[in-house]
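// run 5 | inverse folding | seed 20
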């Protein structure tokens, strides 16, 4: 799916007009497609539907929806909450609406009756504000929105819930709480950026007849599980462990042996042919019994890594992971410095290695290999020296700018995870749930990225696919238990079921 901001959406509409698709036709197509989507959600014959319309083109879309819902058998009324249409196209659609003998009422001519229509409706269509809205709804419209939200009716928003800001996901005042949002041409940033995402409900993106060739380069690609799996390097029937790639993992400590276990097990479950696990000797007795499939490289924490010791390990690997459970220390920082200097294969920098990196970002500019960073918001805050609330205001831009500036792949974890390439490519992952907010979850994700990269999948694709399928495993795990009771081991156990379903 495309992710389009306001400017990109307007450009697509203008390109369609230049190609001979009139704005009136686009509006007609949008309303018809939205009504068809609604018909797929609800049984419409006899259903009481009220379209709450503004005076812009979003209201015009709503007028078309009203006509089409009547054709589907619904009892339809339209409430004008911002007066008469202010655009030529919406005015045209209002004329067609009246010709269809649908009741059209100005909300403020009889607010009591209008309020009753809203409260007694089975379905409300939110067509007040479109993608151009910013700021906050005024007092009168805030009162209308409050009536809608208090109604027992299901609310379907057109393009976005009225009151949210399209490009930033901000909500400055009253906003419609939709059960479903039907959006046009492509999805919008507000559908995936909080707090706006909380107002959108289920999301349906419908075509309105704009050819993909007319759509400008999107802000980001919204990942799907099917596309994520399809992008992975295929493992042929005749494969053996030597052809599936070696994942070299530096992880674990006496205090955090589990991080090494989870990363290694995830790499194995994600298809690495061999996992070579470098752990401190103090952690080895704790980790080895839990991951007998790995080849171990125990080392003394007190002995500094040298190029001579490290080079043979790096030469044996197809991808490297450093960080899970290593601890924040000079030793971790020194090891990271050497790996980034010597490695020629993709390197995943996670957890404690990210903390070490925060003090010396110049290491990234010296790296001779593809680098994948996997920060959560707190780690990203340290990398950027920026407060978490500030970076969370625009996750797409934050991750994208950092990736470009430092020439790395940046996977900014959270709801929703952003994966940014150094060349400007952005992915947005929407799989997953709160069950993934559990110790060890990030270790599993890092292990999966490393395995996919070791298989030969291009590093940005490996990171994006891992994020998507990691979330899918969380969704699969949720089928067998409640969020409160799930652990990262449930996610690991769910991975084979995800691959079985999709591959």
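// decoded
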């Amino acid at each position: 799916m495309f992710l389009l901001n306001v400017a990109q959406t307007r450009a697509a509409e203008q390109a369609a007009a230049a190609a001979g698709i009139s704005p009136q036709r686009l509006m007609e197509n949008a309303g018809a497609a939205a009504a068809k989507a609604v018909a797929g959600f609800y049984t419409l014959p006899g259903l009481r539907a009220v379209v709450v319309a503004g005076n812009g083109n979003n209201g015009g879309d709503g007028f078309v929806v009203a006509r089409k819902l009547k054709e589907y058998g619904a009892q339809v009324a339209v409430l004008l909450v911002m007066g008469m249409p202010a655009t030529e196209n919406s005015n045209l659609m209002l004329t067609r609406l009246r010709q269809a003998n649908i009741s059209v009422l100005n909300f403020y001519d009889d607010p009591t009756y209008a309020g009753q229509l809203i409260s007694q409706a089975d379905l409300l269509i939110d067509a007040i504000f479109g993608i151009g809205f910013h700021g906050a709804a005024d007092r009168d419209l805030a009162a209308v929105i409050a009536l809608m939200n208090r109604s027992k009716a299901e609310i379907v928003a057109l393009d976005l819930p009225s009151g949210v800001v399209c490009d930033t996901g901000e909500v400055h005042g009253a906003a419609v709480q939709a059960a479903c949002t039907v959006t046009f041409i492509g999805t919008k940033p507000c559908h995936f950026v909080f707090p706006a995402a909380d107002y959108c409900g289920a999301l349906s993106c419908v075509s309105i007849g704009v050819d993909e060739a007319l759509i400008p380069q999107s802000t980001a690609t919204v990942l799907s599980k099917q596309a994520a799996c399809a992008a992975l390097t295929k493992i042929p029937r005749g494969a053996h462990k030597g052809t599936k790639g070696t994942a070299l993992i530096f992880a674990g400590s006496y205090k955090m042996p589990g991080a090494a276990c989870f990363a290694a097990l995830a790499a194995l479950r994600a298809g690495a042919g061999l996992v070579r696990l470098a752990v401190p000797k103090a952690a080895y007795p704790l980790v080895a019994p839990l991951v007998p499939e790995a080849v171990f490289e125990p080392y003394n924490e007190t002995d500094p890594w040298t190029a001579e010791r490290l080079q043979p390990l790096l030469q044996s690997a197809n991808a490297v992971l450093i960080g899970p459970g290593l601890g924040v220390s000079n030793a971790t920082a020194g090891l990271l410095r050497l790996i980034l200097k010597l490695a020629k294969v993709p390197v995943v920098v996670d957890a404690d290695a990210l903390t070490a990196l925060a003090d010396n970002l110049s290491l990234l500019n010296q790296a001779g290999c593809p680098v994948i960073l996997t920060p959560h918001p707190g780690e990203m805050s340290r990398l950027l020296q920026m407060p978490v609330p500030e970076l969370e205001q625009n996750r797409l831009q934050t991750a994208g700018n950092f990736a470009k500036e430092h020439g790395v792949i940046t996977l900014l974890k959270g709801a929703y995870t952003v994966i940014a390439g150094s060349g400007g490519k952005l992915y947005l992952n929407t799989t997953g749930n709160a069950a993934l907010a559990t110790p060890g979850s990030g270790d599993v994700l890092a292990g999966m990225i490393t395995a996919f990269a070791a298989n030969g999948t291009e590093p940005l694709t490996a990171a994006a696919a891992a994020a998507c399928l990691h979330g899918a495993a969380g969704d699969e795990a949720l089928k067998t238990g409640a969020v409160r009771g799930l652990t990262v081991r449930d996610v690991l156990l769910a991975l084979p079921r995800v691959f079985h379903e999709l591959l």
